[in-house]
Design goal:
The chain has two domains: 154 residues, no CATH class; 170 residues. Helices cover 70% and strands 1% of the residues. The chain contains twelve helices and two strands. A two-stranded antiparallel ribbon has the order 1-2. The C terminus is likely disordered.
Length: 348
């Protein structure tokens, strides 16, 4: 429990950062609602809680769906209130709309928001008989809440996924290294192999998800993200080879101890070069291109299936090292893109 509390209370903790961000946004929303004398100011706070997600891309999509759904719902309510439908039919329709909205809220949040907006205004109409006067205020509350949520995600301690690419790439390489060590060990056990295989796939999935979200974030170098997309593609190939080698190791399709040790050394050198390349922004020099032992010198004659996988892993690692030398120098420095010079946004 104590290590978990230390982790959550760290300034680098995403949970603490998210809690502080939401607290500040709710405080600003409460002050704005009071200052503008809105009839239902708590709608601003509710909008912020509903649209704020973990990442920028997800929050942006949620904001768009919330604003568009609210606007469409208010147009529908504005027309429906003029028909003066009997209360029994109104309540039945509200029940059906609410049920349908809850059924589709995960897959179609925008359409669900339309339904929730309709039922909310009709509820006020039934209780106070003056639902029309809340239509404009409801839309103003939604817009203010969406703007505060968007500003909070951009300016209040943002956790850009493109900034996490380096960490997730390092984690993926470390998981690959542990898996290769285990596969090339003298007596790999099936439970340990299965567990490490799962860790390798989890690490790569985290890297892949970060890249997908980073490509939706504002103002970053698209060339850098395209290069990192290629890096992640080669990482996926390595994961597939590790999965295949894990199956071979469980079937005791092994190399000789001497050959396994030589392959392990070559793979570790290649992995360490990739890890070191991710730590520096300077251009990579060509003088260390031959540090890794050439795959052709590791074995003579026909190659076994295990050796073929290992040599392809070495080839992918060499390519990833080259990509890192190009891509990491032009990675974005987060937050500086907000600085404006001569009326234009400066990207770095």
């Amino acid at each position: 429990m104590i290590p978990a509390l230390k982790s959550y209370l760290s300034l680098k903790s995403s949970a603490l950062r998210n809690a502080a961000r939401i607290s500040v946004m709710l405080s600003i929303a409460s002050l704005m609602g009071t200052a503008l004398h809105l009839p239902k100011p708590y709608w601003i706070l509710m909008t912020i809680l509903l649209v704020t997600q973990n990442g920028y891309g997800a929050t942006r999509v949620r904001i768009f769906h919330r604003a568009a759904g609210t606007l469409v719902g208010l147009f529908i309510v504005g027309g429906a209130l003029h028909f003066h439908v009997p209360e029994g039919y109104t309540l039945s329709a509200m029940l059906v709309i609410t049920l349908v909205s809850y059924l589709i809220v995960r897959k179609a949040y925008g359409w669900a928001t339309v339904g929730f907006t309709v039922t909310a205004v009709f509820t006020i109409q039934i209780l106070t008989l003056n639902g029309e006067q809340f239509i404009v205020a409801r839309f103003i509350d939604t817009v203010i809440g969406c703007l505060i949520a968007f500003g909070g995600m951009v300016w209040l301690w943002p956790q850009w996924q493109s900034g996490l690419l380096r960490k997730n790439a390092q984690d993926a390489l470390e998981a690959d290294q542990e898996a290769i060590r285990l596969i090339l060990s003298n007596d790999p056990q099936a439970p340990a192999l299965a567990y490490q295989r799962m860790r390798v796939n989890q690490a790569h999935n985290a890297l892949f998800n970060s890249l997908n979200q980073a490509m939706q974030e504002p103002g970053f170098n698209t060339r850098y993200l395209e290069d990192m997309k290629l890096w992640v593609t080669h990482s996926q190939f390595i994961v597939e080879h590790i999965n295949a080698m894990t199956t071979l190791a469980r079937e005791h399709t092994m190399l000789t101890p001497d050959l396994a040790q030589r392959y392990l050394q070559s793979c570790e050198i290649a992995l360490q070069r990739c890890q070191q390349r991710l730590e520096y922004d300077e251009a990579g020099s060509s003088g260390d291109a031959n540090i890794m032992e050439s795959p052709e010198t590791l074995s003579h004659g026909a190659l076994s299936t295990m050796e073929q996988h290992l040599q392809r892993v070495l080839g992918h690692l060499n390519t990833m090292h080259t990509i890192s030398s190009v891509a990491w120098r032009q990675r974005p420095h987060h937050g500086i893109w907000l600085t404006k010079r001569f009326g234009k946004t400066t990207l770095q």
